[in-house]
Specification:
The protein is an alpha/beta fold. It is built from two helices and eight strands; from the N terminus they run E-H-E-E-E-E-H-E-E-E. Keywords: Lyase.
Length: 120
């Protein structure tokens, strides 16, 4: 039996604020909230979810895991996320036309990947 994706843990300076930002991005809700962690998800029975925990100091290098989001209208979704506080990242990597690299309000990297409609 293999593993299944249960959730993603994100170090954060302000777990409650960042959890609410990601909940709005993903149309999730707050599942649980305590000083040491805030969890978001569709509901308490559906996974994967995300958990935000306090990070006592900045890391010397960027995170080793990032989130990929799928969007049929990638341009509109990137615009929506930037309007919400995300920012484009300037990276010295080959351009991938169907992937846009962004950072959330605390600098955590994620990509928006162009997906196709399931109907076509």
């Amino acid at each position: 039996m293999g593993s299944r994706w249960f959730g993603l843990v994100v170090d954060s300076h302000d777990p409650a604020r960042l959890a609410r930002w990601w909940a709005e991005v993903l149309d999730y809700r707050i599942i649980s909230e305590a000083p040491e962690q805030v969890a978001i998800g569709r509901d308490t029975e559906t996974f994967p979810g995300m958990v935000f925990v306090p990070a006592p100091r900045d890391r010397a290098v960027g995170g080793r895991i990032h989130l990929d989001l799928g969007a049929e209208d990638q341009t509109a979704e990137v615009e929506r996320l930037v309007d919400m506080g995300a920012r484009h990242l300037d990276v010295s990597m080959p351009v991938e036309p169907d992937r846009v690299l962004l950072a959330d309000p605390e600098g955590n990297e994620f990509r928006v990947i162009r997906t196709r409609s399931s109907g076509g």
